[in-house]
Amino acid sequence: MNKTLLAIRIFFIALCVTGSWLVCYTVEEWDQRRGLAIGIGLMIGTLVVLVDLMLKGFSLRGLTAVTFGLGVGALIAWLISNSPLLNKGDPQTIYLVQMALFVICTYLGTVIALRGKDDFNLVIPYVRFVPHEVDVPLVVVDASALIDGRIAKVCETQFLSAALIIPTFVLQELQSIADSAESSKQARGRRGLQVLNDLRAIKHIDIRIHSSDLTRRQDYEAKLIFLAQSLRAKLMTTDINLAKMAQFQGVSWLNLHALESAVRPELVIGESIAIDLVKVGKEEGQALGYLPDGSMVVVNNARSLIGKRVTAEIIGVLPSGGGKLIFANLLGEVEPS
Question: CB 3.0 to 4.6 Å from 252: which of 33, 227, 234, 296, for a disulfide?
Answer without folding.
Answer: 234
